[in-house]
Amino acid sequence: MTIRFILNGDDVVASVEANKRLVSILRENFSLVRTKSGCLSGACGACSVIFNGAVSPSCLIPAFRVQGSEIITLEGFSQTDEYQDIVAGFSGAGVENCGYCDAGKILAAELLLEKTTRPDWEEFYNAFNGVRCRCTEPERLYAGILAAIEIRRRRIYGRSS
Ligand code: FES
Ligand code: FES
Hints:
The chain is α+β, with helices and mostly antiparallel strands.
């Protein structure tokens, strides 16, 4: 089937099998390889994208659902100031960065930061429920989130909390 959708702000077309997973379409048809193919069962978050405004595992989205949708991958999100806030916060807190879980970790962080500027542990834990990071313990990730919030606050308001 031929699918048309918006990918990182561009109108795109792809010719694919109806059941081909979005993660495979992104990697094979568009070379967007920061979307990783991990568990392929919706459990690890490595394949996360923003799908019609919500962070979603692209391994669970078949091609026929992609038709007419709007998708932002980590490559697209990395062009934003919001992305820079998060990677700077993670880096400052010593969050590991092997690349495997980046899509899940960074997009989940953005979703959390959009919801609240003071996430407590429970909000953090729930936001990262679908992300399996093998390299960084949750406490360090939480510190990275708090650091990213501070960086964003300084960028927007020019002062610390
Ligand atoms: S590969 Fe999609 S959630 Fe793990
Ligand atoms: S940084 Fe390696 S899996 Fe998360």
